[in-house]
Amino acid sequence: MATTRRVSRSRSLSPAPPPLQSEPVIHGDLPVLKHWLMHYWQKLGLAHAELPALALTQDRQEYMRWTGKRLNTMALGCYCYIPAPSARARTCAPTTGAQQHRHLIFIEPAMQAKSIEVTVAHELIHLSDRVQGTPRRHHHHGYDSIAADEAAITGYAVEDLRALLHEESATRERARRERRPIRYIYQCPGCGKQYPRTRRYSQAVSCSSCDKVYNPRYCLYLMSKPDVVSPSEAR
């Protein structure tokens, strides 16, 4: 990632999850999602009382509206926890049906059936961690304790899950590059590192490998005849 001259602040909207219901909200392939949701909900021993707080969707735009956050274009699944509003917040801005914490999950629809299954299990592991008060962050997808738990709960070998993750990620990357091909290649005058881009930079940027803050000595320049970059390198 290159270093910009000015630090831009990401803008987040207020979370807008769907209204609470007596059952979990499921938007997408209902029979498949509900089957694996309940299957792994029971295997993880999650409390039935948490189900009404759950909303699951396969629509990226909807998930971003629910959470008020951007979703990585390469994400195959995502879990977000929204805590219940504080007493002061409820007093200042009371809202009907929003007085409870929420569990929000996204599942990428364009995946193999097995991938959808294990992704549901994966996100429910995050949910289980949150309910138990021990949330974990990924150190390395497919190679950390969460991956070990995913293998244990699904019954699939961890090596098979890693291969499946790699295959699905590669498929999504190819589809993304078909929609937004690499058109520009920038290069560092210092180390020679190349930065593939789908769009031109809107401001001066420098090589983050040579200096973590903006440094005009390592300002990237647009190559006149860019080298061909494979999809796996264009990230």
* Helical content class: 25-40%
Tally the beta strands: 9
Number of helices: 6
Taking the alpha carbons of the first and last residues, their distance comes to 9 Å
Structural class: alpha/beta
Shape: globular
- The radius of gyration over CA amounts to 21 Å
Major β-sheet, in short? 4 strands, mixed
Instruction: Name the helix and strand elements from N-terminus to C-terminus, one letter apiece.
Output: EEHEHEHEHHHEEEE
Overall mean pLDDT score?
87
Low-confidence stretches: 6-10, 93-98, 228-235
Strand content: 5-15%
Spatial sequence of strands, sheet with the most strands = 2-3-5-4
Description of the molecule:
The protein is an alpha/beta fold. Helix content is 34%, strand content 14%. It is built from 6 helices and 9 strands, in the order ββαβαβαβαααββββ. It has helices spanning 30-43, 60-67, 87-92, 113-131, 145-154, 158-179; strands spanning 3-4, 25-27, 54-57, 77-82, 102-107, 184-187, 194-197, 205-206, 221-222. Strands 2-3-5-4 form a 4-stranded mixed beta sheet, with helices on both faces. A 3-stranded antiparallel beta sheet has the order 7-6-9, with no helix packed on it. Strands 1-8 form a two-stranded antiparallel sheet. A hairpin with a 6-residue loop joins strand 6 (184-187) and strand 7. The longest helix is centred in the C-terminal third of the chain and has 22 residues, at 158-179. It is globular, with a radius of gyration of 21 Å. Mean pLDDT is 87; it is low at 6-10, 93-98 and 228-235.
